[in-house]
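User: What would this chain look like folded?
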Amino acid sequence: MKKYIFAALMTASLLLFDSSVFAAESEVTPETQENILTVEEATKKAIDFSRTIKKNNENIDITDDGLSTTINQLNASSESADIINLNVKLKEAYKNIATYTANNEIEKEKLELDIIEIFSDIIKAENELDLFEKDIAIKEKELKVTEVKAAIGKISRSEYDSTVLSYNNSLSELSDKKKAIEKAYTQLNKILGIEDSEKYSLSLDISYEPLEDYDLDYEISRAVSTNQNIKDIEKTMEITKYQLDTYTSNTSKKQKEATYAQSTRELTDAKTDLKTSMTEQYNSVMSSENSYSSKLKEIKQQEKELDILKVKFNIGSITETELMKKEYDLQKSKYDIEYLIYEHYIQIRKLQNSNLL
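Assistant: Here's the prediction, encoded as structure tokens.
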């Protein structure tokens, strides 16, 4: 029997049922029981390995090294054209350092969400294997019943062959489910910078919290002032405006006017795109919350139906296979709502930080 922790969803009592909190662990095996990995630990490993962060840090160092030279040149310059060019160079350097630094922070949060998503993918793959094995167990019992029926002539040979084929097909697909787990672990090790096919006991503790008191228009206007892409465009416009105000060459002025006009259009498009992205993300969150509510009602109804079937099974009015099928359906719904909680959490995190969209 697999060892999972599913905070309250795994309780049999409807009164104790609470799917707002999900503390899940991946399958615990002798291979993974001593190799526990949390989101925090995995995120730190991913940040330490990140090629993007390393590259940004290198670019910061390179740009910073050039600042001293540019400042010395500026202090020694007396020609107005040189002073203007060096000031532009300084402004661009400061802009680039600010962008690299901000992008590092954005990348760190992206990596954390990537880790959460990969953790959930692994748990989902293991849960799907669990469901598949339950389905095989049901088909195995059905096959035994079919064998008896075939032996006493209650069903045709073709019906029996069809049941055998279905069972054998499931067995052959079992390896694909196991490969899905291997693939998810490979993805995790890749982002951690680990070449070995290492496995872990993963801990993922996510709470379901609906989005409340959210003013989309206000949040969009707030995001415009914090979005890094928009900041970069505005800074480019500021530098171009400085060039327009200081350049004397007509040719250079025309070029800068064109550049400024292009940046203005780019800024307008960026704000429009941000509004669209945030609206779509907000709608996705609302859709997930509706799905969560519907699935929660479905689970409660399935639990009631299962309780009734257990009574029927105990008095012998239904078969064990019928009971197992209802238990399977309930377990599948519990897994489904678990995935919804993970997905909803990631959606809200992205909605709260437009740089992650």
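The beta strands are 21-25, 36-38, 201-207. If you want, I can go into more detail on any region.
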